[in-house]
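Still learning. Show one?

>
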Amino acid sequence: MHHHGYLWAGPKERFDNEALRRPPHPEPPPAGSRPELIQRYREVATEFPTVDLPPLETAYWLIKPRSLVRGTWVEAKEAASWLDERLAEYAARFASERDRDTTRLAGLVDTAAEQLCTGADVSYGFYLERPSYLSLTVVTCSPNRALPGAACPVA
């Protein structure tokens, strides 16, 4: 078992494009569907696996391009340390004063380390200034509980 880290920061408006953050339905629209529905399905089916937006379901990071992996660690504590560093890097830009609280952030890192040790994934999100959004995720790999058939993105 090992862990992959992912980071996405960008405009909240882009983050809110949920169609590109969820996998396409397993079945395409039936024949005779409206052309715009068929076109939208094709767009999502093509773009979802490659778009850098955080997927709604954390495990789907594993099907994204390997270039989006920000780090890989065998030890959960190493992965939690990466989260700690990213939180410290972005904390001054958090829109909420509560989110900037260092005691609270330390608690998030401790909780992440505990969860990762059990094979769970960790995903945190924060609103930033302007309005922007930060997504920090560590996904457990080989295998992932939610998506056990997913291949390792860095293998």
Remarks:
- The mean pLDDT is 95.
